[in-house]
């Protein structure tokens, strides 16, 4: 181990930015192989420690819990590492290739389901030689990309019990939503093949329809925006099941003082699910939302509740849609049913809820306009978009944000 640490120290001292491109790529290849070899030894030792019940020496009940606590791994990463170690007990050829650096930990994870106990039993009943399978999967892993390896594994598993009952897709689905203290929601989950295909098809449709010129979002950001857009579309359609006798919607509570104060007002509002939002974010939501005034006493108890006021009523929204048709931010063109109606002068500060004071903006560009960008309609009816520094975004000569 000390020699390994010394080698890593020497690598850390290299001036990597001065290396020529060819040498850079060659050394990255060597490092990838070295990482595979380290991952192989890690899986082997994790398996040995599990068999020895070593985590009990640190007061932990399992290798997964030890890896999460001492190794600071996520539950998913810790579980996969343990499963890889178990699988390699039954796949000596794959284990040897892994130890040589020829395959990756991800590839081992793809093959691991093949040697679950029930599948080993089914293979034995059919006269399948596990050693032959081991050689085949190892050869594919060492020479093909991970997607092709996955297809080979799926092909085998699908034919292991061709006459058996189809698995219940709901048993293969799971989703958790974890909310951090700042309101950020982390999504973790998995879907069966059909459910995953449906979700990917829906997200891809939104991604491909929302590709404004000069879009600098990463693929991950595009997919996340698409998921939010799907939620927006469903909430706006009014076809979702009722939630506690009312139609599901985004509900935010804020005091009138914070709402009407132009300051950003961090953590001024509370959502129905307990997250905190800034007053600035609430003012953005309020552009095309409904407002219910509530009079409270000194102890915060409601005294009187006024009537719900829809800021942009349906007939005015239709008029804005007819005029603008799409998001008016330069280079966007997102369809009208993705858009919110933005007040050019916010109604909180005296702006009218009218056709002249409204503009269609998709969620992303509505956010931009509430954070320094500006849109304006000239006397000829053409929309112009300006950056926070006051320069105009001109499609063809300057890319849209």
UniProtKB/TrEMBL annotation:
The keyword Hydrolase applies. SMART domains: HNHc. It comes from the Bacteria. It holds the Pfam family DUF222. Keywords: Endonuclease, Hydrolase, Nuclease. Residues 315-367 form the HNH nuclease domain. One of its GO terms (molecular function) is nucleic acid binding. CDD domains: HNHc. InterPro entries: DUF222, HNH, HNH_nuc. The keyword Nuclease applies. Coiled coil: none annotated. Belongs to the Rv1128c/1148c/1588c/1702c/1945/3466 family. This is HNH endonuclease. It comes from Blastococcus saxobsidens (strain DD2).
């Amino acid at each position: 181990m000390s020699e390994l640490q010394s080698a890593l120290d020497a690598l850390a001292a290299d001036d990597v930015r001065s290396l020529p491109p060819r040498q850079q790529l060659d050394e990255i290849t060597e490092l990838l192989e070295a990482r595979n070899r380290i991952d192989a030894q890690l899986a082997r030792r994790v398996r040995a420690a599990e068999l020895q019940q070593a985590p009990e020496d640190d007061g932990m009940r399992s290798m997964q819990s030890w890896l999460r606590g001492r190794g600071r791994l996520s539950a998913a990463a810790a579980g996969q590492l343990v499963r890889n170690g178990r699988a390699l007990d039954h796949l000596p050829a794959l284990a040897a290739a892994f130890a040589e650096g020829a395959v990756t930990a991800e590839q081992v994870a793809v093959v691991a389901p093949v040697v679950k106990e029930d599948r080993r039993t089914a293979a034995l009943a059919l006269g399948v030689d596990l050693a032959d399978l081991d050689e085949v999967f190892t050869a594919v892993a060492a020479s093909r990309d991970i997607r092709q390896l996955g297809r080979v594994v799926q092909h085998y598993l699908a034919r292991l019990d061709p006459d058996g009952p189809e698995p219940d897709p709901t048993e293969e689905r799971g989703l958790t939503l974890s909310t951090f203290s700042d309101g950020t929601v982390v999504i973790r989950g998995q879907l069966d093949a059909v459910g995953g295909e449906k979700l990917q098809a829906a997200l891809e449709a939104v991604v491909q329809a929302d590709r404004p010129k000069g879009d600098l979002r990463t693929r991950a950001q595009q997919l996340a925006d698409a998921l939010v857009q799907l939620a927006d579309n469903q909430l706006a359609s009014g076809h979702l099941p009722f939630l506690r006798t009312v139609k599901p919607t985004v509900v935010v509570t804020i005091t009138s003082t914070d709402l009407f104060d132009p300051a950003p007002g961090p953590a001024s509002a509370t959502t129905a699910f307990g997250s905190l939002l800034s007053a600035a974010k609430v003012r953005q939501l309020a552009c095309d939302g409904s407002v219910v005034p509530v009079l409270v006493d000194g102890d915060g108890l409601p005294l009187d509740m006024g009537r719900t006021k829809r800021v942009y009523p349906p007939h005015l929204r239709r008029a804005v849609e007819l005029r603008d048709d799409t998001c008016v931010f330069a280079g966007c063109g997102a369809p009208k049913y993705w858009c919110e109606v933005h007040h050019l002068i916010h109604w909180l500060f005296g702006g009218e809820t009218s056709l002249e004071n409204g503009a269609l903006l998709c969620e992303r560009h509505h956010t931009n306009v509430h954070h320094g960008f500006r849109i304006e309609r000239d006397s000829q009816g053409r929309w112009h978009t300006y950056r926070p520094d006051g320069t105009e975004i001109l499609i063809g000569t300057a890319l849209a944000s």
